[in-house]
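Predict the 3D structure for this chain.
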Amino acid sequence: MAFVTRFAPSPTGRLHRGHAFSALTAWRAAREVGGRFLLRIEDIDPTRCKPEFEDAILEDLTWLGLDWDGPVRRQSEHLADYAAVIDDLNGRGLLYRCFRTRKDILDAIGDAPHGPVEAARPGPHPADEEAALLAEGRPFAWRLSLDRARDALDEGVWEALAFVEEGRGPNGERGLMRARPGTAGDVVLARKDAGAAYHVAVTHDDALQGVTHVIRGEDLFEATHVQVLIQTLMGWPIPVYRHHRLLLGPDGRRYAKRDRSVTLAELRAGGLNAGTLRAEPGF
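Done. Predicted structure below.
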C-alpha cells in the first residue's frame, strides 16, 4: 500500500517554528519510504483565513526546501463537498439543530452535576421551541448526536471503534487505541452561517485524497476519537495516526500564532538559513 500523508495548515497567520517542525516531520516520513506528501490549505473559515497568508505558507515551505506531490487542495473551493456530507448525515437523522450559544454551553458545563461532557451533549430542543427559534431566524449549529450515531451502528461496530497510533498521544498513548468519541460530547459539525466544521472537512479530504497516515501534533490527538466515528459513519477508511511532540520555545511553551510566536519570515529576515533551522537539535 502506498504511503500518503499531508500537511494541512490554515492561512490565519504566518508559519512559525512549530509549523516548520510538523511539516518537516510529515515530509521526511513520506520521502523516507518513497511515499507522497500532499499540501492542503484548510481555509474554510472566511473570517480568519486570508489569501496573503496562503501565499506566505507557500513561500515559507519553499524556503524550508519542501516539495509536495500534486496540486494544492484548497478547502474553500470544495464547500459543496462538505455540505453533501452534512446532508447525508442529516438525512440519516444523525444531526440536530442547536441554537445554544457558546456562553450557554459554558454556563451549562458549570452547572452540570456529572461534569462537562454531560453539558456538551445538550440534545435537541423540544419541537415547539425549535420551531419558534427557526421562525425568529436565530442562527444554529448542526450537532452530531452520539446517541443516534451509536444506534445507527451495530453494537459490535461501536464497541470496536479504534485507530492505530504510531506516534504518541499527550500521555504517551501508542498502539491500537480504542476510540472514545463520547469524551467530546455532541460535537458541532456545521453552523448555519459558516458551513461545515473542521471535523467534516478534514475527514472528507483525507478519504478523498487517499491519505494513509495522518502525521500531526499531539494537540490534535483527542480530535482523532471523533474523526474515527465520522469515518466509520461515512464508510471511509481510517488512516494510521502518528501524532508527534509539540516543539517548545525557550520559555517552555508551545509555539502558537495566538501568542505571536516569532515567524519563519522574521527568522529569515534576521539572516537564519533554512539548513541551519532544519539541523537544529530536536528538529
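The first strand starts at residue 4 and ends at 7.
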